[in-house]
Each structure stands twice: as structure tokens, then as C-alpha cells.
Write a structure and sequence with these properties.
Elements: E1 2-8, E2 14-20, H1 23-27, E3 37-42, E4 54-57, E5 60-63, E6 65-71, E7 75-76, E8 84-89, E9 94-98, E10 102-106, E11 113-115, E12 121-127, E13 133-136, E14 138-142
Parallel strand pairs: 6-13, 7-14
Antiparallel strand pairs: 1-2, 1-3, 4-5, 6-8, 8-11, 9-10, 9-12, 12-14
């Protein structure tokens, strides 16, 4: 099976994986002189579910380092001022996304974010796509 990774020229982050039975079919997905995306013919297949684990750097596929999103209290009372503190380990400055909408930058000065929704709900916390790192999402729930 042949694969081509489509990636942002500006960051090297993989945007998609094209897969086909023949090189000709997969190469047909390449847009010549694309100003936004580059295309890399993958030698070792990448599972589309794992493409966030890799990036294109200097014309080669590079594995990213894994971070772990951690919450000190992933299930907490919605009422009464309870909070859930979230960060990444090992710590690197990054941005966490809550439900893919709200962005929370983590910096050396502010390495954590506190969640306190005030009402019962679950929030999916993900790492915003970034160079060098990836993380599995977590769910925190106010009950």
C-alpha cells in the first residue's frame, strides 16, 4: 500500500494521509506547486489515527515526543467552587484546547489551567497541534 503525507509547509505538521493500492493513485493526490501544503511519499506506513505522532522535518518523517495531559482531580463537584487543575508532563509551553474551542496557553509563568465550569459537564482536553510533541486527550467531568 502506498502513502503520501500532506503537511503544512509552514510547520511540518501532517494534515492528512493519502493511501492507495498503487503509487500512481496516491501520487495523483499531490498538488504541484501547492503554496500551503507539501507532500511526502511515506516509506513506512503511518496509521491515520497516529498521524499527530509525526511531523515532516527537513524532508523526513520525524517522531514527536509524547506529553501526558494530567488533571489533579478529573472528576469534581460542579458546585461549591471545586476546581480541576490541568497541565502537561513533562512540562513544555503549549496550548491546551477545551472541547476543541477554548484555548488555554500554558507558559513557564502559568504552567497550569484551572477548570471550574460551575455546572455539570464533561470537557475534552486536547493538546493543540504543535511541533515536536503530541498527547492523548483526557476528559475532566464536573458532576
Amino acid at each position: 500500500m502506498a502513502q503520501v503525507a500532506q503537511y503544512w509547509l509552514s510547520t511540518g505538521q501532517i494534515a492528512g494521509i493519502y493511501e492507495a493500492n498503487t503509487d500512481a493513485l496516491v501520487e495523483a493526490q499531490i498538488v504541484p506547486d501547492d503554496p500551503i501544503f507539501g507532500y511526502y511519499k511515506v516509506q513506512t506506513p503511518i496509521n491515520a489515527m497516529d498521524m499527530q505522532h509525526y511531523e515532516i522535518v527537513a524532508g523526513t518523517v520525524q517522531a514527536k515526543a509524547q506529553l501526558t495531559i494530567v488533571a489533579d482531580n478529573p472528576i469534581f463537584p460542579a458546585q461549591g467552587g471545586a476546581k480541576c487543575t490541568v497541565t502537561v508532563e513533562p512540562f513544555v509551553p503549549c496550548t491546551l484546547l477545551a472541547n476543541l474551542v477554548d484555548a488555554y496557553p500554558l507558559t513557564v509563568q502559568q504552567p497550569t489551567v484551572e477548570m471550574s465550569p460551575g455546572e455539570p459537564k464533561s470537557v475534552r482536553i486536547t493538546l493543540q497541534l504543535m511541533a515536536g510533541y503530541w498527547a492523548d486527550p483526557i476528559i475532566v467531568t464536573a458532576i
